[in-house]
Design goal:
single chain; Glucose Oxidase, domain 1; Enzyme I, Chain A, domain 2; TIM Barrel; eight-stranded mixed β-sheet; 13% strand; globular
């Protein structure tokens, strides 16, 4: 049988040899059958049982999610239970059964109607519920049609499986378990899509943007997934298996060596100190980041508190979530970004329908227009600041007016806490995300009103190059080393140096050794990376000279294209560092 190689986009490094767990999370096709009038009572009862079993299943999943990810994340299953229990939905399905529809056909018809209605809603909050409707649709029909339940949590511990699916829905994402899933492969996605960032955060090798892996792979067949190269080898030969095992063993040995770096400082060969912080997506990641040697948190994302929720989080709920991270880093900086929702991350609340949400009502714009929601978060942040070195980061700022309005709301939040006698800090440093060309160009103006800049390279690349970072078809044009992007980063660093404003990078560029080499050369002295990349980036820093990095960055900026810029960086890194960095 011939060897077949599937090529996708490398999303998270590592090699895994294991069986495919094909997750076809799709609504099954339902036959248009009818029943005899005499069977209506039994068919009605069959539907009731399926709905009850679905609710039971969702509650089990919720309990697991609470244990593994926390109550805030697990709330998505509460939303789905509410859907299954909706009296109007159940009533319409029962009416169709009374008209001699089979239970599965009745439920299928109603769910298709509901999904179409929700998808046409002018409110994004309502449209977001479509993914929950799809999940419920699949779960109930799976039971009614006696189909295999393919949820990833149903794999045995130690299955070492490669999860292969078209894309990961929020509820499926919550069920990922490293005791069962060893790697991820998806038809859709890009290097900066949700699944890619999640995989890197979990330390799971991943390949995305494979386009047709779900139709070409079969459950149970053994494959080799290489998250560094972005490939999957189907039907591997003995020689290929041996080579993959050798590379994997080398990586395991390398990981052991890297672990020894956790307690060492990130200092270049010519004595330049680099601060290495961690990006934290969920509070539970903080302890692992600290154990891996992070000197603080350069970016705590707070969207997990609102995305997929049925209600906004309370002030106390937010306080507890932030407090867990601050306590994991006693006396060290913890930079918490205010809600960056909108675009591809929709919260509860009435978002308007927008043809291009990435350029619409999102992030700081939404927060300033919803002062009640924003002040609740700001109060929680001011309260948790009594526990440590907390700093507040504002996303998608393009004008100094936005900074001043946010500071005004922060002062109002402090006044409310003071009036209530609630302990808090009123002098919390406020910084901004530099993730648009506007913010980079106006950095010298913005510097007078902020304490620090956090360069968010994911969006900075997207907005500078006019390339949708979530579009797999545009992945080849999403080039972080484009000279225009490098120039904006260098400009921001120069302004920060002149004005005394701290500056760091918290985007995905910081987590990749080659790009981290470029960032050090551009003047960045604070890198915030995903926890599993801390040691790799630290090793890079300790093996290179900042002067060589500066020369490399200057050559990259002078290059005419992203390809030429990357070549210039690779050549200088190859000359500067050990062979292990040559393919970084």
């Amino acid at each position: 049988m011939p060897r077949t190689l599937l090529r996708g986009i490398p999303a998270s490094p590592g090699i895994v040899i294991g069986p495919v767990h094909l997750l076809r999370w799709e609504v099954p096709e339902v036959p248009a059958d009818v029943i005899d009038p005499a069977d209506i009572p039994s068919e009605t009862e069959r539907l009731r049982i399926a709905l009850a079993r679905t609710i039971e299943r969702l509650r089990v999943l919720r309990e697991r999610a609470v244990r593994d990810a926390g109550a805030a994340e697990a709330a998505i299953f509460d939303v789905q239970v509410t859907i299954v229990q909706d009296e109007e939905l159940v009533g319409r399905a029962m009416d169709l059964v009374a008209q001699q529809f089979t239970a599965e056909r009745a439920f299928d018809v109603v769910m298709h109607d509901w999904r179409e209605h929700y998808a046409r809603s002018p409110h994004a909050m309502v449209r977001e519920r479509v993914s929950d409707l799809v999940d419920v649709h699949i779960r109930v029909l799976t039971i009614l049609m006696d189909l295999p339940d393919r949820d990833p949590v149903d794999l045995p511990d130690g299955a070492n499986a490669v999860l292969v699916t078209r894309e990961l829905t929020p509820s499926l994402t919550l069920q990922l378990d490293r005791r069962r899933i060893a790697a991820i492969a998806t038809d859709f996605g890009t290097r900066t899509s949700h699944v890619a960032i999640l995989a890197r955060s979990l330390g799971l090798p991943a390949v995305v943007g494979l386009l047709d892996a779900t139709s070409r792979l079969r459950s149970g067949e053994s494959i080799i997934l290489d998250g560094t190269a972005g490939t999957i080898v189907m039907r591997p030969t003995e020689a290929e298996l041996h080579a993959a095992n050798v590379r994997r063993q080398r990586e395991v040995a390398e990981d052991a060596d890297l672990a020894a770096l956790a307690s060492m400082e990130a200092i270049t060969q010519d004595g330049v100190r680099i601060q290495l912080f961690a990006n934290v997506d969920l509070p539970d990641e903080a302890a692992e980041a600290a154990a891996n040697g992070a000197e603080g948190v350069g970016l705590m994302r707070t969207e997990f508190l609102v995305v997929g929720r049925a209600a906004m989080p309370t002030e106390d709920e937010q306080y507890e979530a932030y407090a867990g991270v601050v306590r994991a880093f006693p006396g060290k900086p913890v930079i918490i970004r205010t809600f960056d929702v909108g675009g591809d991350k929709l919260p509860v609340g009435g978002f308007p329908s927008e043809p291009n949400p990435f350029l619409g009502w999102r992030a700081i714009r939404m927060c300033l227009d919803q002062p009640g929601i924003f002040k609740t978060q700001l109060r929680a942040l001011l309260r948790v600041a009594t526990l440590g070195d907390v700093r507040i980061n504002l996303p998608l700022v393009v004008s100094v007016d936005e900074v001043r309005q946010a500071k005004g709301l922060l002062a109002a939040a402090a006044a409310e806490l003071a009036a209530g006698g609630i302990p808090h800090r009123a002098d919390v440093p406020v910084g901004i995300m530099v993730e648009t060309p506007a913010a980079a160009v106006l950095a010298d103006v913005l510097a007078h009103d902020v304490a620090f800049f956090s360069i968010g390279t994911n969006d900075l690349v997207q907005y500078t190059l006019a390339v949708d970072r979530g579009n797999a078809a545009m992945a080849s044009r999403y080039t972080p080393l484009h000279p225009a992007v490098l120039q904006l980063i260098r400009r921001t660093c120069e302004v920060a140096d002149r004005t005394g404003v701290e500056v760091g990078v918290c985007g995905e560029m910081a987590s990749e050794p080659l790009m981290a080499f470029a960032l050090v050369g551009l003047g960045i002295r604070q890198l915030s990376v995903n926890p599993f990349s801390l040691s790799r980036v630290k090793r890079l820093v300790r093996h290179v000279r900042a002067t060589a990095a500066r020369e490399a960055a200057e050559a990259a900026i002078a290059a005419g294209t992203a390809v030429e810029a990357e070549r210039a960086l690779r050549e200088r890194l190859a000359a500067e560092s050990p062979a292990e960095f040559h393919d970084s």
